[in-house]
Specification:
Elements: E1 9-11, E2 17-19, H1 38-48, E3 55-60, E4 63-69, E5 75-76, E6 80-81, H2 83-102, E7 110-118, E8 126-136, E9 140-149, E10 158-165
Antiparallel strand pairs: 1-2, 3-4, 4-8, 5-6, 7-10, 8-9, 9-10
């Protein structure tokens, strides 16, 4: 099958030309200045997910930032913030990123894949995660996230990449 001329191509170090998968050929527009308000997102979180301590603290073109104030139950022996706590803030930041990419709050956007690497122990009172948009297709949003503690973005504690599935229109 001959691929359309407009399909993006990459050349590997071996000189092989690959066509991008079909899902990445049509890239949907990304919000350059989101029409979303942080207060709207946090209000939706409080109403629909009252148990979460996560909150949105910043939105921008192609990125979202989430924060979580560490609770005593999130601390492991040695004073380290638990892995599940860091994983949770990554998932939440990527969810907010889906809202930025879609230019609307979409509570039914779902995590379809999430991989995390813990780089160093996290010790502190506030966990922050910035998710950056990598790709948007008709059915999914891919983002990369970095986690740090107590306002120290130079000391990344975890790095992750995840995919969110976009629900079908009704």
């Amino acid at each position: 099958m001959v691929e359309p001329q407009h399909a993006p191509q990459t050349t590997t170090s071996f000189g092989v030309v690959r066509l991008w998968p079909r899902c990445f050929r049509t890239v949907w527009p990304v919000a350059t200045s989101p029409n979303l308000e942080i207060d709207e997102i946090n209000s939706m979180l409080r109403e629909q997910f009252p148990g979460t301590g996560n909150r949105c603290i910043e939105l921008g073109p192609g990125y979202a930032v989430a924060a979580y104030d560490v609770q005593p139950s999130d601390i492991r022996p040695g004073g380290f913030v638990s892995g599940p706590c860091q994983f949770g803030i990554v998932d939440c930041a990527l969810w907010f990123l889906a809202f930025v990419a879609l230019k609307r709050i979409e509570p039914m956007a779902m995590t379809s894949e999430l991989s995390i690497r813990f780089l160093r122990p996290a010790q502190g009172k506030r966990v922050i995660c910035k998710a950056t948009l990598e790709a948007v297709s008709r059915r999914s949003i891919v983002g990369t996230a970095h986690v740090w503690v107590d306002g120290r973005p130079d000391k990344i504690t975890a790095a992750a990449q995840g995919t969110y599935a976009i629900p079908l229109p009704r």
